[in-house]
Structure formats: structure tokens, C-alpha cells
Amino acid sequence: MVQPKKGFVYLVGAGPGRADLITLRGAELIRVADCILCDKLANPALLELARPDAEIVHVPKRIGPGSVTQEQINQTLVAKALEGKTVVRLKGGDPCIFGRVTEEVVALNEAGVGFEIVPGVTAAIAASEYTGIMLTDRRYSSQVAFITGREADGKEDSNIDWEVLARFPGTLVFYMGIGVLGRIAERLMACGRAAETPAALVANATLPTQRVVRASLNEIVETCRAERIEPPALIIIGAAAEGDSELDWFMKQPLFGKTIVTTRDTAGNAEFAKKILDRGGNPVAFSTIAIQPLTDSNEFLRVLTHLGDYDWVIFTSPNGVRIFFEAMAALGKDARVFASKRLATLGVKTAATLAQYGIKADFVPTVFTGRELGRQLVAIANLNGKKVLSLRSELATNDLLEVLETGGAIVQDVPLYTAVPKTGDVEALRRQIEDGQIDWLTFASPSAARNFFDAIPPDAVNAGRAKVASIGPVTSEQLNKLGVRVDLTAVEYTTDGLLDAIEAVERGDGS
Ligand code: SAH
Question: 196, CA 20 to 30 Å: which among 89, 105, 203, 501?
Fold first, then answer.
């Protein structure tokens, strides 16, 4: 664990784009900081690591009015440190590669403020490794140069020697060059670099929106204009820019470039988004549901006082477990309320959530429906005359209860939470669907489907190119009832199963 220094500034590299490419030390410092000054290029998801009470200052350096000057950033850094705070200055990529760290350090030294520099993965390195463009390769590039494009505009005090760059026998990587790409290409060619030299642009490196455009040096400007490449982007020039498709792992992932809408509650969407990102997809969160605890109901409180009467307790979702233990904590109780109870869970994730509270479930069958859980529990335990407490969502179906009762159990079903409709930015999503920007709409529960199509008419989806993927038959049935064309129903009723099924379709071996 980092021992944060007070009245001190950490100049931290946020890495190239994808949030988890930051260093471990960088992430730990974000967790403990009192104040974070954040660059535009640093992934905003990193700020979720920060303490809830940490002060976050966004310092985008744009050209034009409303922008923050380097001088203002220096002053803010000094002022926050002199207030005795642990300050993290979060910069895209590596802080010292075209990062103006020198100016910040001079200001800190003048004010007598201590500092540390935490390296980060610079954009060039990451762009190379996420595209198969090797910056160095013993066959054709034994050297690499990082160059700022800012000075291509004929600035008098430019340090760039175009003659040398034109002759450079390795890979050239230009940062901040997209606005002056034409000048860069012209200058290199004017100084003798061959017009057919391979060139590539890599935009949004390491993000699911990453793009690569290739052309020869004399055609790269036109190609980028036609492809509408936007910053941030790097320009790579030299034999390396041709790329090696053997080494391109990132863009070959089946979900790469696929925009996938998730329609769960906020926490569910965040968890699902991680899985989509891990497979190279581009998640778009659209909340349809807010989870609302019902643990202040009289029914729940009454059952708590009689927990001792039950033989088995069943949890069917991680949400249920979390809400139950939050309610326990509020009442000053803990896992000991279950001391002599036997516990069953629906799904390994529910069991894993229970384990976080120190409880090992007694029965965790690998099933995905309440009915199947009930069947298996009846098969392994003699439930005849036994008292079973089921703690679930108010919206759960009665299948589980019916099966248990058929097995002779005396069942008490107490709702722990309910889900209320809550929709995200409807207009924005509808536009994206109608413009053909969405590849998949995913539904992980019937209530998500209902709430989604209350907000967006089924015809808007049926008429477009977005495909509809459902987590299982119950959700598909609901979608059918709503008049929605279902393109795919997962075989395994989990979010991983849903993504496996989407991958199969994208690979061309699915239904
Ligand atoms: N310190 C940063 C660079 C800052 S200069 C680093 O080490 O990466 C800003 C330039 O970096 C942008 O104009 C662009 O050329 C490049 N850049 C940063 N992030 C990028 C990304 N994800 N994809 C492509 N280029 C990126």
C-alpha cells in the first residue's frame, strides 16, 4: 500500500487510453489522492478509483477560449500542494513524452514542493502493440524516433531537422500531427523521402474505437480525409507502417469494433461493460432499471426475527445477497444470523457474493433458472415438512416456489428488492440505432426488455440494422410478446453466455 505524502505532487502517466494499462503504482496513487488534476487524454474511468471525497480538477488544454493555460495548471498544482494535499497530476500516456512535465517541475521546485514521476505507457508503444505495427524489427527498423507534429508548421524556433528525418533509416512516429499531416508529408518528401514510403495513422489506440488507416506517404492525407480520422492519432512512417497481420491480435477479436448496448441497472451495465471490453467490443450503457431495496418492509423485518425457524435459505442473485447484508449491517448484525442455516444459491456468482460476506453456500448447482434450482434442491435434500426461506426480487417468477412446494417444503418468499424503470438518454440512443451505429442490443431480463421498449418503439429497432440478443428463453419470450425480432438467444443464460453467442454469430458460425 502506498504511503501518500502530504503537500506533494505525483506526476502520473495514465497510459495510452484503455484504463487498465496504467501502472499499479499509478492506480494506487489515484486511490489515495486528495486532489487529482486530470488531462483530457486520461481515461475518465480511472477517476472511478478515486476516493469519493477526492477533489477532481479537469484541465483540458484546448486551443481557444475557455481553455486552461499551462501557467494556470502549474499554479493550481502548487496551490493544492501548499494546502497540504496529496496531489496526483494525471497525464495521458507517459507524463514525460510531450507532456510538458519540465514546466510543471520548475514551478514545483520554485515553490519548494516535492514531486515524484510515475511512468506510463506512451501512445506510440501502445499503438504499435495494439495494431501489429512493430516500431522496431531487426529486419527493417533498428531505430525509432518520436517527434512532435506541433513544429511542422514552419515555426522559426523549431528543433526539427527535416533533412535528418527524411534520411532516418527507421520508424518515425509523430505525435500531435494530424492537423498538420499534409505539411509533414510534404516536408519529408521535399527533403527526399520516397513518395511510396508506407505511412499509417492510428487513432484512439487501445480503445474499442481504435482505427488504423494506411497509405503511401503521398496519399496518406487524402486517405485520412476520406476516412475522417480524428484526434487523438499518431502518424507512423517507414517500413514498419505496413504492419504485420500475424502480430495484430487486438483488431482480430470477434467483437472488435462492435458497438453493444447493455440495458441493465447501472452496476450491472458496468460489470457487463468490462466483459465486452475484454473481448474488444465497444460497450454503450443504457440503464433500464434501478434496483430498489425493500428491506425496510415489515415483512422483511418480521422474517429476520424468525430466521431461526428455517432449515434452508435461498438467494437467487448477487444483488439479493448484497442488499440483504447491507440491511444487516444497518441493523448492527452480520453473517452470524445464518449460523445454523443451510444455504443454497442460484448461480456461482451469487455464491461468490455470499463468500464475500464470509459464508460458504451449502448447495450451488450449476443451473440458470429457479425451476432447475428447486428441482435439484428437492433431489438432494429431503424437504418434506422443512421450512425454506427464499430471498429474491419482487419480480421473480413463482417457478422456484412451486417446485419446492411440490417437494413438500413449507416455503416463505420474501422480496428483498424490486427493479423500477429508469431510462438513460432515450433520444441519443434512438438516433444511434436509426443511424446504424449500433451492432447489438442486449437484454438480460424480461423487465429490462419491457422498460427498454416502453422508451423506444420496437419498430425503430426492427427496421434498423442493430441485432437483438437475449440472455435466455424467458427474456426472448418477453421480447417476442413486445413484437421485437429476436436475432439470438444465449445457450448459457449468463452475460458470458450472451457474449459467447454474439461472438459465434460475428465469427459466422452461429445461427
Ligand atoms: N504524454 C502522451 C502524449 C501527449 S501529446 C503520451 O505519452 O502518449 C498528445 C498526442 O499523443 C496526441 O495528439 C496523439 O498524437 C497522441 N495520443 C495520445 N493518446 C493516443 C491514443 N490513444 N491514440 C493515438 N494517439 C494518441
Answer: 203
